[in-house]
Specification:
2 domains; four-stranded antiparallel sheet; 16 strands; globular; disordered N terminus
């Protein structure tokens, strides 16, 4: 009898392990799928496949069509992709235009992501990156997709930036760990110039180094009940490449989506505010907002 019971227990454990190993991860309230499978995300049926390396870039193929062509769905230019895993820093890009820089050194790009009628199809390039072993999958989200009643916004003025936020607001503590500012022509702006009205005319930009951390169990539970993870958004910003290549690289948003296997939620990211110099340097904001996201991981 004991032998039969032991066999039954072992079989049950094996079945659970086998089943769980086949299930895609759904970290922090995201939707999950295996690479090659489709998710209903942001009003699109979106499939991500063929994750591969070419030099220091991760390439993925995307094929998506609106879930309902007559229903609202995210604009293609608002859809971002990022690398899921245990990376030292998040690595994201808007899907459209993501291969513009990589195309000079990457050869395995048949067709960069494009938008034929009612489609989103082609290759997305994410990089450069050396840490190949830390990449476990790809995620997607839109900075314009915001879960109601989940946001908090804070001032982040030059030269101090963002003071540590109250974890009771969103479950995250976010603060500035570095800050640099420039005029549009690339001239640095210094603290000594704060009293010089002439230094704050025209356009300018600022790079904010931000640190976000949370208690992992709380962030996991909050994200599940909210329906998705949090993202950081900075404003003001400009469309396209903006005032400086650094702003195009770092962007104005980042998803707080560390690898679910890690013991802590700790993300260091750089974001760019840009535009009229007073708005970009003296009156910028950092917002913490809940959003929906999808994650594709290897089989």
């Amino acid at each position: 009898m004991r032998t039969l019971l032991a066999v039954a227990v072992c079989l049950a454990v094996w079945l659970v392990a086998c089943s769980s190993s086949k299930d895609p991860v759904r970290p922090f309230g995201t939707q999950g799928a295996r690479l090659g499978e489709s998710l209903a995300l942001l009003g699109w049926n979106m499939a991500v496949s063929n994750l591969r390396w070419d030099g220091d870039y991760v390439l993925i193929d995307v094929d998506a069509s609106p879930t309902d062509p007559h229903a609202p769905h995210a604009k293609p230019e608002d859809i971002r992709f990022g690398l899921y895993g245990a990376l030292a820093h998040p690595l994201e890009s808007a899907g459209l235009g993501s291969c513009d820089t990589a195309v000079t050194s990457v050869h395995d790009i048949t067709s960069p992501l494009s938008t034929p009628p009612d489609r989103l199809t082609g290759t997305v390039c994410l990089g450069p990156l050396k840490e190949r072993s830390e990449v476990h999958g790809v995620y997607s989200y839109s900075p314009r997709d915001r879960i109601p009643n989940t946001s908090a916004a804070y001032p982040a003025a030059f030269p101090v930036g963002l003071l540590p936020t109250n974890p009771n607001d969103t479950g995250l503590v976010v603060k500035t760990i570095s800050l640099s500012a420039w005029r549009a022509d690339g001239t640095p702006v210094t603290k000594a110039q704060l009293g010089d009205a002439g230094a704050f005319t025209g356009n300018g930009y600022m790079l904010l180094g931000l640190e976000a951390h949370a208690i992992s169990a709380r962030y996991r539970d909050d994200s599940a009940s909210r329906g998705g993870p949090m993202m950081l958004l900075v404003s003001p910003t400009l469309p396209g490449p903006g005032l400086n290549p650094a702003c195009a690289v770092y962007g104005a948003s980042v998803l707080i989506l560390p690898d679910a296997s890690l013991d802590a939620v700790h993300v260091d990211a750089s974001l760019c505010t840009q535009g009229e110099i007073n708005e970009a340097l003296l009156y910028p904001t950092v917002a913490i907002v809940g959003t929906h996201a999808g994650v594709w991981t290897a089989k």
